[in-house]
Structure formats: structure tokens, C-alpha cells
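ESCALATION

Customer reports they have been waiting on this structure for their group meeting. Please prioritize. Original submission:
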Amino acid sequence: MKLLEKGPGWSTIQHCTGKGNGNGGCMSKLLIEKEDIYLTTHTDLTGETDYYYTFICPECGIQTDIPESEIPIALKRELLQSKKGLYRRLEWR
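Update from on-call: job pushed to the front of the queue and completed.
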């Protein structure tokens, strides 16, 4: 089989709200693509780490977290693998 043309990549429309990062976003409506997302983390006192899928607004510079349910599992795996250098198992929902 030969790939003739790649399909369009993943994208989502989000508003800059600052959600998960102190709020204060400019409410710009943005088309967020895979390349715009990076992982941010929070480690609590017990050492457990939570991962967030974040973008930064090109208009105001505020970070906004995208709800995990809106990120495809393949993209979650790719971001986690690149962040931690290893494969982290994610459950299908």
C-alpha cells in the first residue's frame, strides 16, 4: 500500500480562558493544532503527578489547559512519551 496524501491533522477550536493557569485569558477564539499543545504538570505533596494539555495564546501569552477528554488518545500517548522519554499506559475511555 502507498500513501498518496495525508489526511488533515488533528485540531480543535478553543478560547483563551487561562483555565488551569489562574484564568485571565483574553477570550480569543483559536484553532489549536497538535503542534500547539505541550504538557504541563503538577506534582502534589504525595509525589503524584497530574498532566495537563496546554497551549499558549499568541495574542496575550496566557496558558490555557484543554480538557483531557478533547485530546485523542494517540496524541496523549505521543505527548507523554516525548515528555517522559517512555511509554505511559493510558486507559481507553
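Sent to customer with the following note: Residues 73-84 form the longest helix (12 residues).
Escalation resolved.
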